[in-house]
Amino acid sequence: MTTINFYKSTGIIDYFIKLFSRGKYCHCNITINGITYEAIPFNKVRKFSLVVTDEIDSFSINLTPVQEQNLIKFYEKQLGKGYDYFSVIGFILYSNNRRKSGKWFCSELVASGLFKVGCNVLKRVPAFKLSPVILSYSPLI
Question: Phi and psi dihedrals of 56, rounded to 5?
Answer without folding.
Answer: -120, 130
